[in-house]
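Session log. Operator J.P. requested a structure for one protein chain; no other inputs attached. Running the standard single-chain path with token output.
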Amino acid sequence: MSITKRKSPRFREIGKVFMPELCVFPGRLVDISASGCCIRFPALVEPDTDSDYEASFALSSKSPAKPFVLILQPKWKKSEPSATEIGFEFLHSPGTKNLTSHIEELSRAET
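Structure written below.
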């Protein structure tokens, strides 16, 4: 399902995101687009907005069999008592091709 009011359409997606540099626990993907994503971590984390983070994405069964790696830069965060939701922008990454094909697949599934 596409989420409106974004630069590029965002889609609800199920998956885990591993970012050990930021959090020892895997994050849960909230939504994803060609330009960024939102990840919810089950802990309080403080991302450095001037830093880039490497993330390994293990998405739903419709996605590539192997996780793919993307470089992310934090843009915003929302903290709750025991969790943190962070919006990231994607930077040019080794997994950009896999991301593009996954987003195309999500777009086709919606039509």
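Operator note: The beta strands are 2-3, 10-12, 15-18, 27-32, 36-41, 53-59, 68-80, 83-91.
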